[in-house]
Amino acid sequence: MEQATLSSDAALQKRLGHKFLRPELLVRALTHSSAAPERRPSGDAKSGEAKDAPEIHEDNERFEFLGDAVLELLASEYLVLAFPDWTEGQLSKSRARLVNARTLESAARRLRLGEHLRLGRGEEKTGGRDKQTLLADAFEAVIAAVYLDAGLHSARDVLQRVLFEHAIEERGDSITDSDRKSALQELLQARRQSPAEYRLARASGPDHQKTFEIEVWVEGQCLASGVGSTKKEAEQQAARSALARLALLGSPPADDAGVERARGETNAR
Known about the structure:
Helices cover about 60% and strands about 10% of the residues.
C-alpha cells in the first residue's frame, strides 16, 4: 500500500515537473485535516507504544497559508512583467481572477490532485476528492511544498507551466482584458449619462452549475445582456457587449426598438 502511494506521488511529481528532494513535504501538502487524526498511532496508552500504526503526518493547513502568499507574489510578478502597460487597478483585478478558487481548481484537476489527496473517511464518503475548496486548497499547499523544497525559482517554474499559461489561454477575456464594468462607467460619465445598473434577468441550472443572465440598463433602457457561470462574470460580459454597442452607435443609447433588437441579437448568441 505504501509502495503504491509512493508510486502515485512520483507520477504527480512528473506532472508537476518537480522532483522533491524532501518528499515528505509533498505528503504533508496532500494530507487534509480530516485525515490527520486518523493517521495518529494507536496503542497502549500506558506504555505509549504504537501497535502497527501508520506514520504520523501533519495536515496541509499551514501549507495552504504559505502557498497563498507565494501565489500572490508570483502572480503579481507574472502580470507586471507580462503586461507592462497595465494600471494598478487592472493588475489587482486580474490577479484576483488568476488566483481565485475556480482557476486554482482547474489547475488542480489538470494535475489530478484529487487522486493523491489523503482524506479522512468522512470526506472520502462525501466526495472530497472532487470538491472545489479541497482541490484549490491542496494546490496552494503543493505550491508551498515546492517552495520549501527548492525555493522561489522552482515555485515560479511550476506555476508558469501549470497555472499562469493555462489561465491566460482559457480565461483570456476575463484576465487579459481590463475591467469592462469600470470602462463602461467611465464612458457613461464622459457622456454625462447616469451610471449603468445591472439586473438579474434569469438564473438556470442546478445549484452546483448555475448559469446567470444579467442585463445592463442605462437611463431606463436595457443596453445589453451577458451570460456567465457567476453573476460577476455575467456582468462583465454584459458590460463588454454594452461597450461594443456604444462604440458602433457612437452616441447615447438608441430608441426602444433599437434596444430590443440588440437584446434579441445578444440572446441569440
